[in-house]
Design goal:
Elements lengths: L1 H16 L8 H4 L4 H6 L13 E2 L15 H13 L12 H11 L11 E4 L1 H13 L5 E6 L3 H9 L3 E8 L5 E2 L1 H6 L5 E7 L11 H13 L4 E4 L24 E6 L12 E6 L6 H11 L7 H13 L2 H23 L4 E3 L7 E6 L1 H4 L5 H12 L1 E2 L1 E2 L8 E5 L4 H24 L4
Parallel strand pairs: 1-12, 3-4, 3-6, 6-7, 7-8
Antiparallel strand pairs: 2-9, 4-5, 8-9, 10-11, 11-14, 13-14
Helix pairs in contact: 4-11, 5-11, 6-7, 6-10, 12-15
Length: about 425
């Protein structure tokens, strides 16, 4: 009888209040991924006369032409078959795995031990933890523009104020240091530095990194160094870990095995704590506490990390970067000859940004319209620069097979020339 009355009360309450709607949290409401928000609203209807070519997503595995080496696969098989890595481990990762990461990324100028490593769920998890441990809602954080969309996603969900410092295409995407410094005030908590860069493919010189560090030191701000593409540079270029260039500025460097080892789905990343003068004493504990929220990353991968990081031959990395550099050369040379386009030559990572100049952009609404028309007429999909906060550019991913890259460039060139030719014939200026 009591149960019946209770049910009747619930039904009456629902009827009185109307449709039952469960509200979402403020965090969920303020979580926005620019790439997904923009791409999901594109009316993608490829031209059936062409095979579809997507050079949009930063996953080097999707074409099947780039695979991890046998040493990496064998390490995973050994980890699984051993039966030793099926249970829970410390939230920050096993000692053996953290020792392997520390050895892999240590330098004489910025030495690391296992105590300076926190394992995470991919580099995205590392970025999120690094940002969360340093700032509170209402604080402002400095992120590059153009920049990886996840910075904006995390900042928005945590209610951080995003302040975007300019990267300069005419200087191969170096940071505008004057603009960076103008954004800093008493509520600024850290500076994100992404080198090598997604989406730009830039690689910073030692001197430019030192100049960034001078700004950080002057204002006593830590650096969150997104170094997921560490050492993924083209021939003649040098990657400098930013922490190796300072003895004073505290740095949280994030990375993962995903892109360099061609296994982005394996979801093991890390935070490297470069602690200057015990500045990160509380931050260390904070990271340990934040790590308990996911109770550690994949134990199978952790079990394989020592072998993955120590046994993968250098020739594997060299061959991968040689292939990507070859595609970069193809794209740069071909698109440099296309009227209305201005590619910025990359020096590492696996991306290239291409500017849409005024004499072309005036015939389309914006970079979103440009990429949408490119899909509908030529069946080539590039990400619009707006996904990275940088309108009137588009990004090309350089990991597709060479023939596919050549074909994509040819079609992009045809598309641009057809637009300009059409408007020239119609006498439109």
């Amino acid at each position: 009888m009591e149960s019946s009355n209770t049910n009747g009360h619930i039904e009456a309450t629902i009827a009185k209040k109307g449709k039952w709607v469960v509200p979402i949290s403020e965090m969920a409401e303020h979580t926005l991924n620019p790439i997904r928000r923009i791409v999901d609203h594109l009316k993608i209807e490829p031209n059936p006369s062409y095979d579809f070519i997507s050079v949009s997503i930063g996953d080097p595995t999707i074409f099947g032409n780039l695979e991890p080496p046998k040493e990496v696969i064998n390490a995973i098989l050994e980890s699984i078959s051993s039966g030793k890595h099926n249970g829970y481990v410390p939230a920050v990762g096993t000692v053996a795995a953290r020792e392997a990461v520390a050895k892999f990324r240590t330098t004489p100028e910025a030495p690391l031990t296992e105590k300076d490593v926190v394992l995470t769920s991919g580099c995205s998890g590392a970025i999120e933890m690094a940002m969360q441990v340093l700032a509170n809602p209402g604080d402002n954080v400095l992120i590059p523009n153009p920049g990886f969309s996840l910075y904006k996603t995390i900042a928005g969900s945590q209610r951080f104020e995003e302040r975007h410092y300019k990267l300069l295409p005419e200087r191969e995407w170096e940071a505008d240091l004057d603009h960076m410094e103008s954004l800093i005030d008493e509520r600024t908590r850290f500076i994100v530095v992404n080198n090598p860069s997604n989406p730009c493919g830039s690689v910073y010189s030692k001197e430019h990194l030192q100049d960034i560090l001078k700004v950080a030191e002057k204002h006593q701000l830590p650096i969150v160094a997104d170094e997921i593409y560490a050492y993924s540079v083209f021939k003649g270029e040098t990657f400098y870990p930013i922490a190796s260039l300072t003895k004073t500025v505290p740095v949280l460097s994030v990375g993962a095995i995903s892109k360099r080892f061609l296994v982005p789905g394996w979801r093991v990343g890390w935070i490297l704590i470069h602690d200057r003068n015990d500045a990160f004493q509380d931050v260390r504990q904070g990271l340990n506490d934040l790590a308990t929220r996911i109770v550690g990353s994949s134990t199978i991968i952790q079990g394989a990390l020592p072998a993955i990081l120590s046994q993968t031959p250098a020739s594997f990395f060299e061959e991968t970067m040689r292939f990507i550099e070859g595609n970069a050369e193809i794209c740069f040379l071909n698109l440099s000859m296309v009227p209305g386009l201005k590619p910025v030559k990359p020096r590492g990572a696996m991306y290239m940004m291409v500017g849409i100049e005024e004499d072309l952009i005036k015939y389309v609404k914006n970079d979103l319209d440009f990429t949408q028309q490119l899909i509908s007429t030529k069946s080539v999909f590039c990400l619009p620069g707006s996904c990275f906060g940088y309108p009137n550019y588009f990004r090309i991913v350089l990991t597709a097979p060479e023939e596919m890259i050549k074909k994509a460039c040819d079609r992009i060139g045809q598309f641009c020339r057809e637009i300009l030719s059409k408007h020239a014939e119609n006498g439109i200026h």
